[in-house]
Specification:
Largest sheet: 6 strands, parallel
Low-confidence stretches: 1-19, 245-296
Number of strands: 8
CATH superfamily: Glycoside hydrolase/deacetylase
CATH class: Alpha Beta
Number of helices: 12
CATH topology: TIM Barrel
Strand content: 5-15%
Mean pLDDT: 82
CATH architecture: Alpha-Beta Barrel
Shape: globular
Bound molecules: zinc ion
């Protein structure tokens, strides 16, 4: 009897059926890569809406309700220390077909590689505790690609998914400005940065308008893993070989510029000719994120 009880306590919480049915697999070529540039010429009107820094008991349910009403899927990059208190919301995300990503344990910017590794592992453990599974989706806090946590992600083989479109919702702008920022610069295949964490009520309020405008323009939102697979289906159709053997993942690549060099070596070409511009924008967002997150 006691043995049975111990066994039950050791078992992970049972996953909702939906959590098991959604496919979070990401093509191997994304291993250890930083994904940031636009996929130029991608024809399918799909994008990946992403929400960072949650779950939050006020904002996240509003976002989930809006997505559910429109039948759209998103990706939530979660902060580990908020997962345990909101495990029910994490289960709901998975059950409703959204993808879940690792956004560190406590959102640090300056840390050693060893601390970065612990941040990722603790968040991963919290997600597994909540839903019994996790994904290879990772986004470094603040979008930094040159600190201990970004290095740790690379060493673990995790792709670091940044964004091509920012809602600029860390600037404390209203819902209509957030919605405009997202919908006016949307291109097929884009990853969109938003936040559903504490204090981001404006974003939660903007989501219904964003989804309505996307619908009007013929766009739908899929999860980040699904978007990666769609990119590769398209590239394969174009005759681009995507079954690249992943490079060694143990060596961190702290040198700026190494990402595009690697992509060229892989025969795929850069993600986009406007990468420099996008990278510039990301850098700006990072600095802004850093400035606006003081005290987080
Ligand atoms: Zn964040």
């Amino acid at each position: 009897m006691l043995n049975v009880l111990v066994l039950l306590l050791l078992m992970p919480p049972s996953s909702p059926a939906g959590a098991l049915s959604s496919d979070w697999s990401i093509p191997a070529r994304f291993k250890s890569k930083t994904v940031v540039g636009r996929m130029k010429g991608f024809p399918e009107k799909i994008v990946a809406l992403t929400f960072d820094d949650g779950p939050d008991r006020r904002n996240t349910p509003m976002v989930l309700d809006a997505l559910k009403r429109r039948g759209q899927k998103a990706t939530f990059f979660l902060i580990g220390e908020q997962v345990a208190a909101n495990a029910e919301l994490v289960r709901r995300m998975a059950a409703e077909g959204h993808a879940i990503g690792n956004h560190s344990w406590s959102h640090p910017y300056r840390l050693s590689n060893a601390e970065g590794l612990r941040q990722i592992q603790r968040c991963d453990a919290a997600i597994r505790q909540a839903i019994g599974r996790t994904s290879a989706c990772f986004r470094s806090p603040g979008g930094f690609t040159n600190n201990g946590i970004a290095n740790a992600a690379r060493s673990l083989g995790l792709p670091n998914f940044l964004w091509m479109v920012s809602s600029a919702d860390t600037r404390r702008i209203g819902p209509s400005a957030i919605a405009r920022n997202v919908t006016r610069s949307l291109h097929p295949g884009d990853i969109v940065l938003m936040h559903d964490g504490p204090g981001h009520r404006e974003t939660a309020l903007a989501v219904p308008a964003i989804l309505a405008e996307m619908d009007r323009k013929g766009y739908r939102s899929v999860t980040v893993p699904e978007l990666c697979r769609a990119w590769d289906r398209w590239l394969t159709k174009k005759g681009v070989r995507t079954g690249i053997k992943p490079r060694a993942t143990t060596a961190p690549s702290p040198k700026p510029g190494i990402r595009s060099v690697r992509r060229r070596q892989s025969g795929l070409g850069p993600y986009s000719p406007v990468e420099a511009e996008v990278t510039q924008r990301v850098r700006h967002e990072c600095q802004h994120d850093l400035a606006s997150s003081v005290g987080r």
